[in-house]
Write a structure and sequence with these properties.
Layout: E1 7-12, H1 16-27, E2 32-38, H2 41-48, E3 55-59, H3 67-75, E4 82-87, H4 93-100, E5 105-108, H5 113-124, H6 132-143, H7 148-158, H8 163-173, H9 178-185, H10 189-203, H11 208-219
Parallel strand pairs: 1-2, 1-3, 3-4, 4-5
Amino acid sequence: MNQAAPIRVMIVDDDPMVITGIRGILQATEGIDVVASALSGEESIEKASLHYLDVVLMDIRMPGIGGIEATQRLLNGVRPPKVVSLTSMSSDDHLFRALEAGAAGYLLKDIGPWDLAEAVRKVHAGEPILAPQSLRQVIAKVTSNSDHRLQREAVALLAGLTDRERQIAELVAEGLSNQEIAEETFMSLATVKTHLNRINVKLDTNNRVRIATMVVRAQTS
């Protein structure tokens, strides 16, 4: 049986000590390989073009091109990695902007070693890395100041989903994992993933947080 390829990770932070700490944790974890690091948003964009990346851990607050703009640029690339925002403050408003930019979730820098490794695995697999209550709080914050144009756009896009796809999108917005959605809808895990891929195409999204944002935005129209 072929062994799964390791998850290829890049760490981006303007503090070398943070990079060293995270690298040490992840390199000691089976199935995860830290292939690059960067001290700035600019450097992360350069490094991304040189490496085949699965997950990027991106500091939000950096001088020059910050984590939010760097996230947008990485996700607009040819083969965008999944980007996870790093922050030292759970109330940091930059966090919400990062999620709107397409970040797949967020982590606090004081996260425990096991939780950090598990978060990388989950986001690589397309699973949410926010607790259900945190996801709802984050999405509510992101959509609280949405203009009517964005709301109408969300309604129109969701109208293009089938009833089953709409159900799954709404369960994503409630914070359910793929396995929980499969149990709720009596579908196989593979079928749930197939539906999620179709939802991402139809909504022009690339992760669960953006799907959830779209659903909540439509509901507040």
